[in-house]
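re the bet — no i am not wrong, look at it urself. input seq straight from the record:
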Amino acid sequence: MTSYHGGKQRIGKQLAEVIVDESLNIAEDKGLTIKGYCEPFCGMLGVYQHIPELYKEEGLCKLKYKAGDTNKSVIMMWTALKKGWKPSTKLTTSDQFMKLKTDGKSSARKGFVGHFYGYMGKYFQPFKNREKSTLIKNVDRVRRISKNLKQEDVTFKSGSYTQYSSLRNYVIYCDPPYQIQSQYYNERSKKLDFDHEKFWDWCRKMATNNIVFVSEYKVPKDFEKIYSIQ
């Protein structure tokens, strides 16, 4: 489940290392003191899970950590995991999946089930049967990620990336919906549009007092590519 559509589990550590190394170099060049780290599109924390330890290795042990996402159920899941909640290791049926998808409510369970059973990890897209062993493995994975981040007291909050517009002296990593993708879905599994121009303008504004990184295939000409993965 944590290796979901658009996720960064397999390359998360690579990206985290680049973010930490580059941010330290930029901070030194600009004379900026890094006060915290934020991911406005945190999802399943593929990159985030590696960040605190890497900064600690560089001597930055008192940073503030923030994570947001428009999917309220995913945020509820991570918040519940921090408090000791454990996703069920009983397999979910197709009927249960569809009932949860259409109940109109947000919940920690929904955050887990929606990605784990969705085809290719797409949130509540066509149901995909999973093996019991895979379910147990992924339950253990999200609990391990949460346990590691609990030590840093990451603040989770659902909402748009713009909720972080007042941050200063933060490293901000954004993994927004990609422009080359044709479909994006919100928590209610409804297709939505993402205003890319508005997002890029926000990044420009935030880069004035922060260090901003973005994962994308296509970017405006005034953004600098620092790393690529085939």
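see?? The longest strand covers residues 64-69. told u. also Strands lie at 36-39, 64-69, 155-158, 170-174, 211-214. so pay up
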